[in-house]
Amino acid sequence: MADIIKLLPDHVANQIAAGEVVQRPASVVKELLENAIDAGATAIKLIIKDGGKSLIQVVDNGVGMSATDARLSFERHATSKIKSAEDLFNLNTKGFRGEALASIAAIARVDLQTKTADEEIGTAIQIEGSEIKSQEVVVTPQGTSLAVKHLFFNIPARRNFLKSDSVELRHITDEFHRVALAHPSIAFNYYNNGSELFNLPQSNFRQRIVNIFGKKANEKLVPVEEETQVVKVSGFICKSEFAKKSRGEQYFFVNNRFIKSHYLHYAVLAAFEGLIKPGMHPGYFLNLEVDPSSIDINIHPTKTEIKFDDEQTLYAILRSTIKHSLGQFNVAPTLDFEHDSNLQTPYGYKDKNAVLPKVTVDSTFNPFAEETKVASRSSPKSSTSSFSSYKKPSTQSWESLYVETPSREDRSSDFGNLSFESEVSTKSIFDGSDDDLDTAAITFQLKRKYIVTTIKSGMVVIDQGRAHQRVLYEKFLKTVTLNEGLSQQLLFPIQLSFSLSEIDILNEIKDNLTTMGFVFGEISESVVEINGIPPMVAEAEVGSIFDELMADCQQNVGADGFSQADVLSKALCKSLAVKTGDVLDKLSQAALVNDLFACTESMVSPFNRPIYVTITENDIDKKFI
């Protein structure tokens, strides 16, 4: 039998490795920004075109590379961060595997220009699909400029799986936020298609948060500070009244590296227990400094998950630290053991006895005695004989109580001109005669979750939440398609605060929201003014609706108008639909049933879940066999 196992060519191996390192343009941005930080840069520029598909360029003023290092940096497993396996457990840098540039060069066209401080001229290298096209000297400032063009140009299948430019740009912005927040001492500039999105000067951590998420973020922040032998915790948490339904502003940084940790996230939620409603998520920006030897970073290709040696201790310290900050800054209610001066006895009355109240009773009062004289109010005994002024009313005119009432014939003539409204009868949505339906109780609510109604062949059990979602979804979709949205003007406009990335999402979906009935006023960098809302939306729910809307649209909204309308309709129907536990009266139950079976698709919800089940008479009979 012939040998069938062969070594893969280098360019194929690099493309396979790129599948782990480069998942989308945001992955390239993360790797290049981390390399620039490891190079000691104090100012970094990020330039993006077409959502990163056409161009991703990172320019830094770091130490740069020599001609030999520049050529060697594109080889697999080439790195300056580690020298032995023991170094993996004492990492203080970002990229250390040496696969980033090799993987990127395998699936894109790369232009590199770099120069060190000791050299007069720099080096320029052009690579296309792991193949070096040219290497020459060039005049360039100190630092490194690396441009990645036409990502996935040689793997069309991977390129077809990329989302729209706006969605990919949003992922890039998220990665930019994570890197920029972890390093406030570095200045960042972020450009997209020639326009500047962010200009972040060197600052402290609080100023960096405000520069990214807007001026309104400053009033939300509560400082957190604690240092122990295990971990040093610093940063900020957001006040409980600013908690959202979406997981937006939640950042953990371990040794200046962004991580995701569900375990530590639950520690924060435990600290906020009792302060926020169920289903709400608080915002936080927390830095954890631990011994590098106590964590393992290289357990995930993207290095966003870390294994701690002692997670339980970190959980307890983080929870108690946040609870201490909440109490210290009067965010959480505290017990007050100080005396209230209003409840203390005045000094002048300290030795005096209390005076008991007295009640005076006239023992000679007789309500049945006939009195001809009424005591004068000015008499000295008026206080004791005031009850003797009672006089029995006269009964001489008792005959006036019984007067002749008109006969029934006379009364009937008075109602001759009255007319009565008849009740409007509605036809049943089900087939069959009236005898087949129990008109006295056509619907009833079961466990505040289901609506049960009868049909000719048995009965139907309807999930009230999913049914209402389907009804609202088709209404919103019809409103957007036919441009027939109604709006209810507000007496006082509503002002909502958003981050810059959320403002971009809002500008993208603004036209469809306007069609649905929302009327927008002034939209600034961080505040949106709403002057009108659809009639079915309660004014008190506008804030939570937009929070859920941003969370749903952040991942799903593309450039296609219909897909935007579909996503918005699903997000709004999920927010406005009745929930499990809501009590519906008979009229609401009947209206929901009628609206459901008038929909184009009544069997499944907008999220492809069954809405109702039918139980026939035969199914019931089988239960009694």
- Identify the CATH architecture of the largest domain: 2-Layer Sandwich
**Uncertain segments:** 372-389, 423-441
Number of helix segments?
A: 16
First CA to last CA: what distance?
66 Å
Number of strands: 22
Q: What structural category arises from helix and sheet content?
A: alpha+beta
Q: What is the molecular shape? A: globular
Proportion of beta-strand residues = 15-25%
Radius of gyration equals 38 Å
Average per-residue pLDDT, rounded, comes to: 79
Q: Under the CATH scheme, which class of the largest domain? A: Alpha Beta
Strand order of the largest sheet: 5-4-3-6-2-1-7-8
Fourth CATH level, the homologous superfamily of the largest domain: Histidine kinase-like ATPase, C-terminal domain
The major beta sheet can be summarized as: 8 strands, mixed
CATH topology call of the largest domain: Heat Shock Protein 90
For the record, the count of structural domains works out to: 3
The portion of residues assigned to helices is 25-40%
